[in-house]
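Exercise 7b. C-alpha cells:
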C-alpha cells in the first residue's frame, strides 16, 4: 500500500477485518484498480484535500498527546506531533496505544523500535526520556517519515533502513515490536535486549517469542500487547 500510495493511507477496523483507506487522486484510483481487480473501490467525492484529515485525530496516552500538526495540543501534556502524510497514521491504533501504555511503566533506558512506520513509538519514547532511541524499518518512506518526525519534535532518534529479519539490529534495553505474529516469531532470536514490548495481533493469538519470559499483557478492542523479559 505504501508503494502504491506514498501520500499515505489509514486503517479502519471493520469487525474482524481491516479496511484500508488510501489518500490519493484519480491517478491513484486507477493504479488501485489495476493492482486489485476484485476489490471494491469507493472514491470520496470532492477529493482528499480535507477529507483525509478526519482519519487522523489526536489520542492521549498517559502523559502524551499524540496528533497531527493541524491540531492544537492541550496544556499539561507532552505533545508528540506526527505528520501522517507518507506513513501509517498518528498513533490511534489500539496496538500503538497498548505499546505506549507499557512504555510509560518502564524505567528510562535505551529503546529500539522495530518496524517503526511513521515513528510514533520511537519519537514518543524519546519524548518520555528514553535514550538513546533507535528505529528501523525496511521501507525508505517510513524511515524518512521517522526522521522528519524526530526533527519536528526536537528529539534524537537514530533511524536506519534495514530488514529486521536479515540485517544486524542495534542492541537496546527495551525493544518495541508492533508487528505481525509471523514476523515476531522469526525476530525473537535476533533481539539483543532486556525487555520486549510486542503487539500487532489479536488477544486470542499468543505471541511466539522463544527465549523470553512473559511478564504481562494489556488488551484493547480485541487487540493485545505483551511485555517480556529475556530468560
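Sequence design result:
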Amino acid at each position: 500500500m505504501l508503494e502504491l500510495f506514498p501520500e499515505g493511507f489509514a486503517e479502519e477496523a471493520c469487525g474482524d477485518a481491516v479496511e484500508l483507506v488510501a489518500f490519493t487522486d484519480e491517478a491513484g484510483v486507477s493504479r488501485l484498480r489495476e493492482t486489485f481487480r476484485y476489490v471494491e473501490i469507493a472514491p470520496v467525492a470532492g477529493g482528499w484535500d480535507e477529507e483525509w484529515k478526519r482519519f487522523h485525530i489526536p489520542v492521549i496516552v498517559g502523559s502524551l498527546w499524540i496528533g497531527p500538526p493541524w491540531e492544537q495540543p492541550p496544556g499539561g501534556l507532552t505533545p508528540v506531533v506526527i505528520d501522517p502524510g507518507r506513513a501509517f497514521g498518528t498513533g490511534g491504533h489500539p496496538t500503538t496505544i497498548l505499546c505506549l501504555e507499557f512504555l510509560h511503566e518502564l524505567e528510562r533506558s535505551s529503546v529500539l523500535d522495530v518496524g517503526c512506520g511513521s515513528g510514533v513509538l520511537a519519537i514518543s519514547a524519546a519524548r518520555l526520556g528514553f535514550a538513546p532511541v533507535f528505529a528501523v524499518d525496511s521501507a525508505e518512506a517510513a524511515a524518512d517519515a521517522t526522521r522528519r518526525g524526530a526533527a519536528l519534535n526536537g528529539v534524537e532518534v537514530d533511524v536506519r533502513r534495514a530488514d529486521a529479519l536479515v540485517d544486524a539490529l542495534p542492541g537496546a534495553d527495551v525493544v518495541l515490536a508492533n508487528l505481525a505474529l509471523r514476523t515476531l516469531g522469526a525476530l525473537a532470536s535476533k533481539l539483543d535486549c532486556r525487555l520486549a514490548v510486542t503487539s500487532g495481533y489479536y488477544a486470542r493469538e499468543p505471541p511466539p517469542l522463544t527465549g523470553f519470559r512473559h511478564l504481562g499483557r494489556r488488551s484493547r478492542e480485541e487487540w493485545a500487547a505483551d511485555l517480556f523479559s529475556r530468560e
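Instructor comment: The longest strand covers residues 212-220. The two ends are 37 Å apart (CA to CA).
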